[in-house]
Amino acid sequence: MDVKYTKHFLNKLEDLMSETDYHLRYEKGQFKSGYCILNDSHIAIVNKFYSLEGKINSLIEIIREIQVNEEKLSDKNKTFYKDIKKTPEVH
């Protein structure tokens, strides 16, 4: 899968996150990695001041890190999720 640094690609990642058990929030913060995952609360927070590229990279890392119940995903998001899991890490 090619990572595209576009608003449309960010929207696809946000749509995938909306079908997980995690709530995605954009807030200001001093996260060393640009994001924070609160596993007990099922909340993923991304630095709202990040660039589009930073937000996309953070969401890809979050999606790889959290537990995702694939049965809850729509068919298109299930395919997208599998593509993300197969993609080499982005830095």
Could you provide a short overview of the structure?
By secondary structure, the chain is an alpha+beta fold. The chain contains three helices and three strands; from the N terminus they run H-E-E-E-H-H.
Structure description:
- The chain has one domain (about 5-85).
- Helix 1 (about 5-20) packs parallel to helix 2.
- The longest helix is centred in the middle third of the chain and has 14 residues, at about 50-65.
- It has helices at about 5-20, 50-65, 75-85; strands at about 25, 35-40, 45.
- The chain starts with 6 loop residues before the first helix and ends in a 5-residue tail after the last helix.
- The protein has a three-stranded mixed β-sheet, covered by helices on one side.
- Strand 2 and strand 3 form a beta hairpin.
- It has three helices and three strands.
- With about 90 residues, the protein is of the alpha+beta class.
Percent of residues in beta strands:
15-25%
Low-confidence runs of at least 5 consecutive residues: none
Query: Which H/E pattern describes the elements?
Result: HEEEHH
Terminal-residue CA separation: 15 Å
Task: State the helicity in percent bands.
Answer: 40-55%
Quick one: how many beta strands? 3
Q: What number of domains? A: 1
Largest sheet: 3 strands, mixed
Strand order, sheet with most strands: 1-3-2
Mean pLDDT: 92
Number of helices: 3
Rounded to an integer in angstroms, the radius of gyration calculated over CA atoms is 12 Å
Shape: globular
Structural class by SSE content: alpha+beta
Oligomer: single chain
Keywords:
single chain; 91 residues; alpha+beta; three-stranded mixed beta sheet; 3 helices; 42% helix; globular
